[in-house]
Amino acid sequence: MKVIISAGGTGGHIYPALAIAKKIKEKDSNSEILYIGTSNRMEKDIVPKEGFKFIGIKIEGLKRKLSLKNIKSVYLFIVAVKKCKKIIKKFNPDVVIGVGGYVSAPVIYAAHKMGIKCCIHEQNSSFGVTNKFASNFADKIFVSFKSTLTNEENKEKIIYTGNPCSENALKTVAAKKEDFGLSPNKKLVLIVMGSLGSKTISEKMKNMLSLFNNKDYEVMFVTGKNYYEDYKNCNYTNNIKIVPYIDNMVRLLKKTDCLVSRAGASTLSEIVSLNIASILIPSPYVTENHQYKNAMDLVSKEAAMILEESNLKGDELLRMVEKILNDKVYANKLKNNLKTFEVKNSSSIIYEEIVKLAGDKNGRNN
């Protein structure tokens, strides 16, 4: 089976795309995969390191407000479609998969115009601009949240698969807490706001962390690479650890008793698959407030707590953290309710649907 996968811009698109690519290779070692991404974003470095052939194209997203820059974006889209048609003709895929980010729009559009079967995956509970556009040309639409089944158009094409990152999370080997300077016998609160961090959260946490001094549990705050230096002169007690970044954070999530986090789609898929009690602080700065919508999918089923950034205060965060740590009945309720969102074999479901789309022309056992 020959497959083109396209996704880019952020890890929230790239890592689900890679999870799908790896599942295809696992199931069919003879499969050929080509990844199309942007030529100047993080996928250009990440994807080749994972061993997949990569082609970069130049593309920019449309501005939401009226702007002359949109003329350039439309021009780049037209040029990208022409380039994608050449790439597709040469590679001759059985199926093309778009996993989000504006780079996937010209790829899906070009493939559809050339009569190639297409599918897309949406990580968030509501469609982003790119996938809303691409959904018109996709033969199948894979979604991460059940709520998307009722909230979107093209319902006849939508298949609930969950997020493919969840399957990877389950396979990841848990870390030893001692490797992070943590006690193996104390409960762990992990606070993380993405690989780069959040300026607003970072500024607030400087004072709020002191409320956690001398507790009988440990708190690890991942500042993000941009804000670690701001904490060099801060003094907290030994139960509080400050780090800039954790590589392969899923390892430590498996040892976490309470997670305080943004509500990105990949993070939520890990929370669900690893059954973690969490306090979600959705980023208010993302497109169409999609993190809040993601969070509310869990919160509405009492599967997570929510604390909006505008309401973030130390005493409130402390109260919520200790509610999870000290109230076993409540923490277990959150975890039990997470099971309603659980899809343990997301990548496998997506693979089977891709094989059907491709017409199984290469056979399952090639």
Could you provide a short overview of the structure?
By secondary structure, this protein is α/β, with parallel strands linked by helices. The chain is 39% helix and 16% strand.
Describe what this molecule looks like in 3D.
The protein contains 14 helices and 13 strands. It has 366 residues and is α/β, with parallel strands linked by helices. It has 2 domains: 2-163 and 344-357, Glycogen Phosphorylase B (Rossmann fold); 170-341, Glycogen Phosphorylase B (Rossmann fold), CATH 3.40.50. The strands form 2 sheets. It has a 7-stranded parallel beta sheet, with helices on both faces. A 6-stranded parallel beta sheet has the order 10-9-8-11-12-13, sandwiched between helices. Helix 1 (11-27) crosses helix 14 (346-357), helix 3 (69-91) crosses helix 4 (104-113) and helix 7 crosses helix 10 (265-274). The model is unreliable at 360-366 (pLDDT under 50).
**What is the number of helices?**
14
* CATH level-1 class of the largest domain: Alpha Beta
- The SS-based structural class is alpha/beta
Number of strands: 13
Please trace the helix and strand order, writing H or E for each element: EHEHEHEHEHEHEHEHEEHEHEHEHHH
The number of distinct structural domains comes to 2
* Strand arrangement, major sheet: 3-2-1-4-5-6-7
**Radius of gyration, taken over Cα atoms and rounded to an integer in Å:** 21 Å
Topology at a glance:
Elements: E1 2-6, H1 11-27, E2 32-38, H2 43-49, E3 53-57, H3 69-91, E4 95-98, H4 104-113, E5 117-122, H5 129-134, E6 140-143, H6 148-151, E7 158-160, H7 165-171, E8 188-192, H8 199-208, E9 218-222, E10 240-243, H9 250-253, E11 258-261, H10 265-274, E12 278-280, H11 290-299, E13 305-306, H12 314-326, H13 328-338, H14 346-357
Parallel strand pairs: 1-2, 1-4, 2-3, 4-5, 5-6, 6-7, 8-9, 8-11, 9-10, 11-12, 12-13
